[in-house]
Amino acid sequence: MSRGKGQVAVITGASNGIGAASALALASEGFQVALGARSVDKLDEVAQAIAKETGVQPFVMTLDVRNEADVKHFVAAVVEKYGRIDVLVNNAGLAKGVSNVIDEADTTNWDQMIDTNVKGLLLMTRESVPHMIKGGNGHVINLGSIAGHQAYAGGAVYCATKFAVRAITDSLRQELLGLPIRVTTVDPGMVNTGFSLVRLGDQEQADQVYAGMTPLTAEDIADCVAFAATRPKHVNIDTIIVKPTDQAGAGKVARRL
């Protein structure tokens, strides 16, 4: 069933991990997908995989969500191509480093997390939602985290950005009340993508994060995104909190070592 037929979905951070998996899941549901990320080479690989699977070539364009001019140019190009935006998946995000607030932390990591996870999400939302209002149909799906529900030592700034995502999502839902636009947040626990490698900068350390347990996959989260996006128009999935069976909360993990 092509439940997304005739609709256009924009996915940020679509070059790998959850973004790439969500793009494929939505394309498989019949959505026309527009992919944005900083690495256009990786985007092309994702687009080729989607075209092979669905027979439809996605829209691909380089995008740095931290840059306002970049965001404006990207959204304008999508609208010029398709004439509309129906779904925005704000997936672009990252964690950089693990350090206590009082440590001599690299503040460039703070800037990167705040600018990408919060400012980037806000910019993409601001530019995309007016097109949803004009088209009479829309859905903003924000990728949050259980770190937006539970803070933990060493993750203050990352957790703060995900708490912000939750607050923005809740506020946006109230601001758009009465309009045919849905607002959802998908908040995963431990997902084995490139997340930990980006955060820690070392493959061995990243592998240890998931040692002795079975984490979620990018495809698991993409299933949640596609589920929310394909509900009947009168149904809004507010929040999906999804964790591995081996995880009960931040830092609460069953390991078989």
UniProtKB/TrEMBL annotation:
GO terms for molecular function: oxidoreductase activity, acting on the CH-OH group of donors, NAD or NADP as acceptor. Keywords: Oxidoreductase. PROSITE patterns: ADH_SHORT. Gene3D superfamilies: NAD(P)-binding Rossmann-like Domain. This is NAD(P)-dependent oxidoreductase. InterPro entries: NAD(P)-bd_dom_sf, Sc_DH/Rdtase_CS, SDR_fam. SUPFAM superfamilies: NAD(P)-binding Rossmann-fold domains. It comes from Tumebacillus algifaecis. Signal peptide: none annotated. Belongs to the short-chain dehydrogenases/reductases (SDR) family. The keyword Oxidoreductase applies.
